[in-house]
Design a protein that fits this description.
Rossmann fold, 11 helices, alpha/beta, 19% strand, eight-stranded mixed β-sheet, 31% helix, 2 domains, elongated, 15 strands, 390 residues
Length: 390
């Protein structure tokens, strides 16, 4: 699959008073997150509207049965969150997405996708373009309470916004920080050291960030890469093809016994967590299905735990945009083992959950947009290797 990842524009916080600056105290904040529902099915629009409006913090400001109608509404008043169906008569959601992001750069787009391979291809293309997240679309009659709860949680996270860090990048000391100041004082860059493996964790907004990060690295990039991205298991084969397009080299889904080799790209499959183990003089992948505190499957934490145990100070973790705190426990373990962690900044994140908790815990040596993180990793490859376990 071929997809084009457009540059991600910093998204201002929703419901902020016009003219207010990022990082400054907000004096007036509307109590609700505004939502536009775009789907050609009246039944689906009605069901989604009922679910959204069950939460007093959310308000549906419009519904549209076509992408053309949605664009007309967005020109009048941009919502905080757009629920977007991709398969519609006329222009369709996928073709309309670039225009939506251009007209409303502050709006987060939540794709509501069908559970098919064609739906997965379109959805992952949308996520690479800048859509923030995806949810599977139930059939009529399958809009359950669990689905309503998950939908409301994601809309609130996408529409809430997060305080941004001032500046292009922030270098942080490796100790717990009570709070991050709005304008951190200049600090010397912390050398990353040349890693022997890179483990990347991402969720909401992560696919767009992955495109920006991996796009900085040439096809000759020799360090093995592990990726855990929260996605439905049925999407993972298409996701692997998308990563191949981003990196211009093969990517594979993890299975028991795959050997980690220089330049290899290995993805958590969705059937379980991607972990590593020592097998003689080789390091191989192992699928773990043990439930994790985060509730995620695949989860970033067990991946980082196993990387820390084997590589120690020679490991680098990158935490990209995502909701929740998956990756925090693993990042603590990696840092305790001498490894390094870097994280995406708030301004470029769809949701500054996963990278935010790692940053606030004082674990991130560098906090920056994905492109800058990618450049920092390239710079580290010319540095002295870190000493660590053989």
């Amino acid at each position: 699959m071929t997809s084009s990842a457009a540059p991600l524009k910093p998204r201002p916080e929703p419901n902020r008073v016009p003219g207010s600056a990022r990082g400054q105290p907000q004096t007036h904040r509307a109590p609700c997150v505004s939502v536009l529902i775009v789907d050609d099915s009246l039944t689906v629009r009605t069901a989604l509207k009922r679910m959204v409006e069950s939460d007093p913090m959310l308000i549906v400001t419009g519904t549209a049965s076509s992408a053309e109608t949605a664009l007309a509404q967005i020109r009048q008043s941009a919502p905080d969150v757009v629920l977007l169906d991709l398969e519609m008569p006329g222009m369709g959601g996928l073709k309309a997405l670039p225009a939506i992001l251009e007209l409303a750069p502050h709006s987060a787009v939540l794709v509501v996708s069908a559970l098919t391979e064609e739906g997965a291809q379109a959805t992952l293309a949308a996520l690479a373009m800048g859509a923030a997240d995806t949810m599977l679309k139930p059939r009529p009659g399958e809009f359950t309470e669990d689905y309503r709860s998950a939908l409301v949680t994601r809309i609130r996270a996408l529409g809430r916004g997060e305080p941004a860090l001032a500046g292009e990048a922030v270098h942080l000391p490796l100790q717990p920080a009570k709070a991050l100041p709005a304008s951190p004082p200049p600090m010397a860059a912390v050398p990353l050291g040349r890693p022997d493996i890179i483990a990347i964790g991402a969720s909401t907004g992560g696919i767009h960030a992955l495109g920006q990060l991996l796009g900085q690295w040439p096809a000759s990039f020799a360090v093995p890469i592990l990726i855990t991205q929260h996605l439905p298991a049925s999407f993972m084969t298409v996701f692997a093809r998308q990563i191949e397009t981003m990196c211009n080299r093969p990517a594979r889904l993890a299975d028991n016994g795959l050997v980690i080799t220089p330049g290899s790209i290995t993805l958590a499959s969705g059937e379980g967590h991607l972990t590593l183990r020592q097998a003689g003089d080789q390091i191989v992948t192992e699928i773990c299905t043990r439930p994790q505190p985060s509730g995620c499957r695949p989860s970033v934490d067990p991946m980082l735990d196993s990387v820390a145990a084997i590589y120690g100070s020679r490991a680098l973790a990158i935490i990209l945009s995502g909701m929740g705190s998956d990756g925090l426990a693993g990042a603590r373990q990696l840092v305790a083992s001498g490894g390094a962690v870097i994280a995406q900044d708030a301004a470029s994140s769809a949701v500054w959950g996963m990278p935010g908790v790692v940053t606030r815990a004082g674990l991130a040596r560098l906090v920056a947009p994905p492109q800058a993180l990618g450049q920092a990793v390239l710079a580290s490859l010319s540095s002295t290797p870190r000493k660590g376990r053989p």
